[in-house]
Amino acid sequence: RTRVEGEREEDGAAWRVSTNATTMRRAMSATVAAAMLAPVFISGAHGATSMTPSKSTSTSTPEMYFSTNASAHLDETYWPAWKALFLEEGTDAAYPMPAGADTPDLLSALSGVKGVAVNTDPGTTVTEGQGYAMFVAGMRGDVDTLKQLVVAWQANGQGVAGVPACGGCGVNDDSHLDATDICDGTVAIPDGVLCKTVDGAYMPGWDMPYSNFGVGSMGSATDGDEDAVTGIIYLAEATGDEEIREYAVKSITAFVLEDLGYANATLNSRPVPHTGDIPESQQTMYLWRGGSCWGGYDTSSPGTNGANRNLCINPAYFSPGQWRLFRDYLKAHSKYVPRGFTAEELGTVLDSAIVWGYNTLNRISCDNGLVSNWWTLPDQGWPWDGSLSCANSGTSAGAYYSDASRIPWRVALDYLWYPEETAQTPLYNDKGKLSSTPFGAVEYSNRWATSWLSLIADSQPAGAYPPFADGVQKLRNDQVLPLLSDLATCDACPDGFMASPWNGWGAYPVVTAFQVPMPGVDASTMQEWVDFMDELAFAGCTHAQYFDLGQEVIVSSMLSGIAVSPLA
């Protein structure tokens, strides 16, 4: 894999790209936020370390930070182990999708390409894993692999051969039905289920094959969808193929309609309780659903399990950087937006979900970044005035565990792709008045990084962690990673950090918070921190199974510097 030397100007940001992705740095023109300039004093058991900002005549935002060895970790360990999970159409009997030949909506540009699905569990592919693979293949510029993954994604949208495309349709209750009956229309789609809103661009059922759980496999999952759609954008831009570009725009539209709920705006949004300083375009609050069948502001799920579906969100599905990309891609290729919609109106929904997502995250996360797997919204009022009530996927509300573990890197990605815009994300108080302090990726990432750093400094001698000192032995991973379990709990996450720090989805996602400048930490020390934490996590975290590798291929891509926006 090679990259061409050179610089490119895009939206006021200059990228210097070299053949070694770890040397890539971005110079940006935004003003440093006031919070970034304040000195920070970290008290430790062995004294206090005063970290003051380095003097600079420039007003540009501090650089992003990338790990020196992350490319090697990705190329030599994580990606080969991840690719070992691939199942190829026509080669592996366990390939769970319909054949490409049985997928009528398959893009002509992908005709004859064999599909590849990620074997996330014996005999199973979930869209979460397929989305990870598409996202990372896109970041890596692995066009051939990405084409194969997109073939399988489209086949997943088909669902079952020989019937109309299933397209993520399902039910929002506990019915036990044959999946084919949903696809062929024998069973009516319940109100509140949003699927097949855009012909040929489907947010597919979350689990394949459908024989695993029947109709329970069929609804889409927002997290897998947003990563997969990002992969499709990468493919469109890597190939310059207009058919794929149109498919990408249609897929973004389907995401907004189904996963953000714009297909039924009344059911899936709420008015702000107080308008205050809030512009009219943001006075309708959108958040995000669990997928095509339930969640978010939707209250249509009946039955005893309705309490776990209605008004329920997973905070870690919030992916502001990807949603800004979707908005901008719609603008760039507005001619492909399906009839009946405009790029502007779809972009307004995405912007609303970003603004109210950050405003909610500000209140439902602890000061150290911890957030619950699940959060129940109030039917009226501000979304943060909810409760720890709903629970799904075998994880509980009130704990930071596997369902919450994607939030650090999803937010850090917003900084890598939109550093200037995320720094201007408005924060409103309960009367709708604009706060003088924004809340975006920097502020949330700093919660994680500064809190972990403080735990280290409180228990270890200065110089054993950045900034390093000669003659002082560097800390081992067993002295650093387990400290995450000591993060203080709060009312919004009373059970605390329940993930094992030794899992790839435990400590490693939090390392991305060190890519974002911390207040009062100079550039050389920040570089030491990101290198140090990456090495500790690589050496300490397991990477032998899907649940770990799925996070590791994304996090190492970000840390290595190849997580460049498709529009950059």
Question: Which residue ranges are poorly predicted, with pLDDT under 50 across at least 5 consecutive positions?
Answer: 1-59
Classify the beta-strand content into a percent band.
Answer: 5-15%
Helix content: 25-40%
Shape: globular
> In order across it, which strands form the biggest sheet?
1-2-3
Class based on secondary structure composition and strand pairing: mainly alpha
User: Would you tell me the overall average pLDDT?
Assistant: 89
Radius of gyration: 23 Å
User: Total number of helical segments?
Assistant: 17
Descriptive report:
The chain has a 3-stranded antiparallel sheet, with no helix packed on it. It has a two-stranded antiparallel sheet with strand order 4-5. It contains 17 helices and 15 strands. The protein has 568 residues and is mainly alpha-helical.
What's this entry about, in short?
This protein is mainly alpha-helical and 568 residues long.
Q: Topology, please?
A:
Blueprint: E1 6-10, E2 13-17, E3 25-27, H1 34-37, E4 40-44, E5 47-51, H2 70-83, E6 86-88, E7 116-118, E8 125-126, H3 127-140, H4 143-158, H5 179-183, E9 207-208, H6 222-239, H7 242-259, H8 265-268, E10 269-271, E11 284-286, E12 312-313, H9 320-332, H10 343-364, E13 375-376, E14 399-400, H11 407-417, H12 419-422, H13 441-459, H14 477-480, E15 496-497, H15 508-511, H16 523-540, H17 546-560
Parallel strand pairs: 14-15
Antiparallel strand pairs: 1-2, 2-3, 4-5, 6-7, 8-9, 10-11, 12-13
